[in-house]
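Subject: sequence -> structure tokens, single chain

Hey, anyone have a minute? Need the predicted structure for the following. Not urgent.
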Amino acid sequence: MAALGLFGEAGPVIPNFGAGSSGCVVHNRFFCADWVEHNWGPVLWPALRGHIALTLVAVGIGFVISMTLALAAHRYRLLEQPTVLVTTFLYTIPSLALFELLVAPVGANVYSAEIALVSYTLLILFRNILAGLRDVPADVLDAADGMGMTRTQSLLRVELPLALPAIVAGLRIAVVTTIALATIVYTIYNSGLGVPIHTALGEGPFKTELIAAGGLTIMLALLADGMLVLLQRALTPWARARGS
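Reply:
Had a minute. Here:
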């Protein structure tokens, strides 16, 4: 009910099928470029900007929590299994159910949206970070120890750099997953590309808005994944040299 009230207050932007609309919009054709041009500023850009913010905050917080848990589990193996069990439980909760369940204690706001999104990143990031740290060859660690490195120095200068490919792989999955899940944030919070997608589905559907918002979601996921691939290549030049 709170989500419905929120939508009522926001006032969804719907196509004007009457006087003043283009013939493309009036006949709800496959794609109307003029509608996109006129509604980029008031509808699509704010939705895209909100979607990016939701994703960055969720993945950023999730990464910090997961890195902390992975470093602790890497040092104290007894922590690994409980952490996996808790993060797996959170990951298996249906997304719509988790969003709605959080409304009661937290409210229909950005906090409940971010808590839900963060929870879905933890298992992915934790397991990839830990796997990357565990995959560092023992002889490399022995060499670092022989050079007189402390445990912290070995972690920062040897283990984490060598674990970067696995860490970035986890980030890629977490980012794309979060971008997808953020499309249903509209159920509790009026932000993200899910808002115009939901509006378009309720209007017939209105094809142009649906294609534009859905296309922006797909392009955002592809762009984010590509940027992370480039980041990985920039941070791990030795992996490129070995591959060549």
